[in-house]
């Protein structure tokens, strides 16, 4: 029987995962990607002898032992080399002259927290108790096992029963955003430590989950960088017979009688298919390409009310120095703020790519300094190329001065400087406001769902980070699986997945 054709827009992790599951289920797929390489936000680039990683910070559930690993095996992601993380991050509070390592060893972390924050002993114990509780369960697939659209009452009961030991951590006060959870903490450093461990908007349970993965030795960093991770998915997709057209920017989704029938590219060519699946920016697809003809109140509310993750500007330096004693990620609350987009930044995040030889030649290191920043500032500034480049140069200079007073000698050992702004991320992936993870993960988003089908439009689906209430590697890989489960369901076919 002739296979049905599926066009997938975008070869980010979401598009690749979609292609992999579609190929497993006997569809003939082609991915159209505007860039010359796969990965989208999972991007790396070379600067002289240095490899700059502009993507994924850490991975969870990449080893046998958690159910998420089965999905990694299905998409070939398990072949990406990972280095285990013993310390989630170091936190340095220059104001009080104190520091703490967020250790995988929860006993040690608890003792350190008690020593630093004796007044908050009760809160520390509550925080660690919850983290410990979650680390005894496998919640890596909680909420992801099946597409929400296909879950019936009995599936929910089964899901809740299977995760019953973890359920209490996902209810009531556990869903408070970190920004609220910290309100009764006495020590400002403890407050800030929790606020910036991830994002202040996430429910507190999210931090417990992250630290529970760390304590289960299920958190790691990519030894060869984000692009290598994407390449592993691309390899799997191609092995399964999928095709990718690179340097092919999709301009429009073609619709006839409320049915998606193909796409047109910017070069004017037209490509027809039985189904179209978009794995790119949601707003562009729904409101530009499809002109807002296929929405409903729920979708409109999401796009008018939900915020996107604030972008950041990233200063990467290739340095002829080793930083063997540094942990891979350090958060600073600095007394010496750096001006970024006309704002003083006290919270500074540094990554030392000292855990693998793939980022720099022997004896050298890539250091990356990230600052939260305003989207508008960079998007407006980029209209004047000279001013935009000057702002990048000056930011790099201020960052280097700041580093020099904390890591003496750095300044004279710098061989490469690279600055990626929110505009860089947007230009490369076209994600709304340079968002690196889709919608802002709030308690509201956590407990809501985003539809993968649009009302009134048949043969069209969405996957990738805008088809989930929260982006990230794990959700977008699942989004690819879920969208093909939906497609198979709509076609009244059984869904198959094959592990490597
Ligand atoms: C710096 C950074 C750190 C991160 N850290 C983590 C982390 O630690 N853990 C974690 O889980 N996640 C992390 N993420 C998030 C995660 O990488 C993303 O959520 C995920 O990769 C998004 O994948 P996607 O396929 O949905 O979207 P994208 O990666 O945006 O892919 C979309 C693709 O579509 C292409 N495209 C866009 N428009 C068109 C068009 N019109 N025609 C053709 N092609 C088009 C783009 O070029 C792109 O390749 C991080 C991201 C960044 C940038």
How is this structure best described in words?
By secondary structure, the chain is α/β, with parallel strands linked by helices. It has 3 domains: 5-42 and 225-307 and 442-490, 3-Layer(bba) Sandwich (FAD/NAD(P)-binding domain), CATH 3.50.50.60; 104-220, no CATH class; 312-429, Polyamine Oxidase, Chain A, domain 2 (Alpha-Beta Complex). Helix content is 34%, strand content 22%. The protein contains 17 helices and 20 strands. The strands form 5 sheets. It has a 7-stranded mixed sheet with strand order 8-7-16-17-18-15-19, with helices on both faces. The chain has a 5-stranded parallel sheet with strand order 10-2-1-14-20, covered by helices on one side. Strands 5-9-6 form a 3-stranded antiparallel sheet. Strand 16 and strand 17 form a beta hairpin. Residues 9-15, 32-35, 40-42, 54-58, 249-250, 279-280, 429-431, 436-437, 464-465, 471-474, 476 line the site of flavin-adenine dinucleotide (FAD).
Kindly summarize this structure in a few lines.
Helix content is 34%, strand content 22%. The protein has helices at 13-24, 68-75, 106-116, 121-135, 153-162, 164-167, 178-181, 188-195, 204-215, 226-239, 282-289, 297-305, 375-381, 385-404, 422-429, 443-446, 473-490, and strands at 5-9, 28-32, 44-47, 50-53, 59-60, 82-84, 87-93, 98-103, 219-222, 243-245, 250-256, 259-265, 270-272, 275-278, 312-319, 329-340, 343-352, 365-372, 414-420, 460-462. The longest helix is centred in the last third of the chain and has 20 residues, at 385-404.
């Amino acid at each position: 029987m002739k296979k049905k054709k599926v066009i997938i827009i975008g070869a980010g992790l979401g598009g690749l995962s979609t292609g992999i599951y579609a190929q497993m289920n006997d569809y003939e797929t082609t991915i159209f990607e505007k860039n010359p390489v796969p990965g989208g936000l999972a991007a790396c680039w070379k600067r002289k002898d240095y490899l700059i990683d502009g993507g994924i910070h850490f991975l969870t559930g990449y080893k046998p032992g958690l159910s998420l690993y089965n999905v990694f095996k299905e998409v070939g992601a398990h072949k990406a080399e990972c280095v285990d993380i013993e310390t989630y991050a170091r936190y340095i509070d220059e104001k009080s002259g104190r520091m703490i390592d967020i250790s995988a060893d929860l006993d040690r972390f608890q003792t350190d927290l008690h020593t630093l924050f004796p007044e908050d002993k009760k809160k520390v114990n509550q925080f660690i108790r919850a983290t410990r509780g979650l680390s005894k369960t496998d919640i890596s697939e909680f909420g992801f096992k099946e597409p929400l659209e296909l879950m019936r009452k009995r599936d929910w009961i089964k899901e809740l029963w299977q995760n019953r030991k973890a359920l209490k951590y996902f209810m009531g006060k556990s869903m408070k955003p970190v920004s609220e959870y910290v309100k009764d903490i006495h020590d400002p450093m403890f407050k800030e430590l929790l606020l910036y461990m991830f994002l202040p908007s996430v429910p507190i349970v999210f931090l417990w989950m992250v630290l529970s993965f760390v304590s289960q030795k299920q958190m790691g960093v990519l030894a060869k960088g984000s692009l290598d991770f994407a390449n592993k998915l691309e390899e799997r997709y191609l092995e399964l017979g999928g095709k990718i057209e690179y340097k092919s920017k999709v301009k429009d989704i073609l619709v006839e009688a409320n049915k998606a029938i193909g796409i047109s590219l910017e070069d004017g060519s037209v490509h027809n298919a039985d189904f179209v699946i978009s794995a790119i920016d949601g707003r562009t697809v729904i409101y530009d390409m499809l002109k807002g003809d296929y929405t409903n109140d729920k979708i409109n509310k999401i796009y008018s009310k939900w915020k996107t993750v604030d972008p950041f500007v990233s200063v990467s330096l290739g340095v002829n120095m080793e930083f063997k004693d540094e942990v891979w990620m350090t958060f600073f609350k600095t007394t010496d703020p750096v001006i970024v987009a006309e704002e003083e930044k006290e919270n500074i995040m540094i990554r030392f790519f000292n855990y693998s030889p793939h980022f720099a030649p022997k004896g050298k290191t890539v250091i990356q300094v990230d600052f939260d920043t305003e989207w508008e500032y960079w998007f407006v500034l980029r209209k004047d190329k000279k001013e935009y480049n000057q702002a990048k140069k000056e930011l790099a200079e201020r960052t280097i001065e700041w580093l020099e007073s904390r890591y003496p000698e750095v300044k004279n050992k710098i061989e490469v400087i690279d600055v990626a702004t929110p505009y860089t991320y947007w230009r490369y992936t076209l994600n709304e406001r340079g968002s690196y993870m889709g919608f802002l993960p709030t308690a509201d988003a956590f407990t809501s769902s985003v539809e993968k089908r649009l009302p009134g439009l048949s043969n069209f689906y969405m996957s990738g980070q805008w088809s989930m209430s929260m982006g990230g590697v794990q959700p977008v890989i699942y989004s690819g699986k879920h969208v093909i489960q939906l497609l198979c369901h709509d076609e009244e076919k059984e869904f198959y997945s094959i592990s490597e």
